[in-house]
Structure formats: structure tokens, C-alpha cells
Predict the structure.
Amino acid sequence: GGPLLPGSTGYATSPDGIEWTKHPDPVFEAGTADWEDYAVFACNILRDNGNFKMWYTGVSTDLEFCVGYATSTDGILWQRDTINNPVLEPGDQGQWDESGVYAPRLLFIDGIYYIWYSSNNGVIRQIGLATSPDGILNFSKHTANPVLSPSPGTWDSGCLLYTSPSPQTVL
């Protein structure tokens, strides 16, 4: 394995969260589809019945950011959903997320996938929310988006990029 290419995703394991063993090569790299042919990064993985589901940021050579979906049985060999990808796309011109959607963070609660994602209007980076019954099709963006925005004149006035939802997280 050589150095990781920009925008590739690696894999590492640890028995204690302190000492890590890295897989020698990227386990997920830019795809061949136009929407992700430049880079992939900022993934979120959920385990489901012994399998892995990954939502990730795909970047085109035109620098458009979308969210894609892939699955794996071992966390190393990934299969992209070539039929439904990208599963979350930027908003239409004039919407707060028209510049791209990236850095997905998901929770599965009571049969619904909740995806928090970062975006911007070209100036301010904010966080939006969308939901889907299957995590692949028909993501519905929340009508109150963006659901989390920077506060002018405070420590977070520059931008909000990532969320880290967990069962204890309150947004």
C-alpha cells in the first residue's frame, strides 16, 4: 500500500481506542460515476444485522458534493448502490443547501433514518436534517432546514460542519 490518496477512506482497528492498526490500503476510493469521480470522504457507518451500511460524501470533478450509499459485510470491501446513488443531493438554486450536501451523520430510530448533513449557501455552513424510511430512497428534507446555524458574533459564527448524533445527543 502507498500513501492514501486525497479523498479516500481508510480502515483501522483498535482493542482499546488508543493503539491502532491501520489497513495498508484505502478501503473506499473515488468512484466512476460523475457525481463521485473526484473524491469520497466524511462517511458514517451503521451496523445492521452483522452488515455495514455507509453513507458518504462524494465529490465530482466539478466540485459538487452529494451523499452516497454503500454496503459491506466486512467493512473493507464495499459495494456502492449504483441504482439509487446519490441518495441525497443539493437543493435547488436559491435554497440554503444549493452549494452541496456533505458529512452525513445518521441515526435509525423507530423505523426511520435521520440524516444530519452539512451544507452552505456559499457563505455560511449550517446543518440540515432529512429523513427516510429505508435510508436510500425518498429522503425528505425537513421544512425548518437548516436546523442548526451559526450564531452571529459568537464562537461558532464562522460555520457549523459536523454533528455527532447518538442516542444521547439532543439537537
About this structure: The mean pLDDT is 87. Residues 55 and 89 are 13 Å apart (CA to CA). The longest strand covers residues 39-48. DSSP finds no helices and ten strands in the chain.
